[in-house]
Amino acid sequence: MILFLKGKSGKYQIQPKFSIELHKKYLLLLKRIQEFFNGIGVITLNNNRNSAVFRVLKLKDITNIIIPHFMQYPLLSQKRADFELFKAVIELMNKGEHLTKDGFRKILAIRASMNNGLSPEFIESFPGIKPVARPLVDLRETPDPH
Asked: Distance between CA atoms of 105 and 100, rounded to whole angstroms?
């Protein structure tokens, strides 16, 4: 997921976030996932939702650990399209493009095609953002994991 955090100055900061949320009875599983990913990220309990969440927010960890994992072991669902869009944003951020006006608008256009798109606030605040085309995911063939 790509978050846009508004600072006190009114400017937005872009924050990538990888997360897995499960019922809190699966807390041990989330701890094992965290261990699998070299101990990166944090696990928090969300008592309002009766869940536990494993989150990775550091760009370096997403770039060096999360992205390579899902490149080697691709998702076998339409979530792969969201992953490809997420990866494109991470690549732009690693080039520093998120710090420029044009780069920010590119990331907005990518975010507009992810998950639930842009919020009404962003559509109003940034008129003219055209969502990028979602990558096509062919799920007819399941790759052999061996």
From this structure: 9
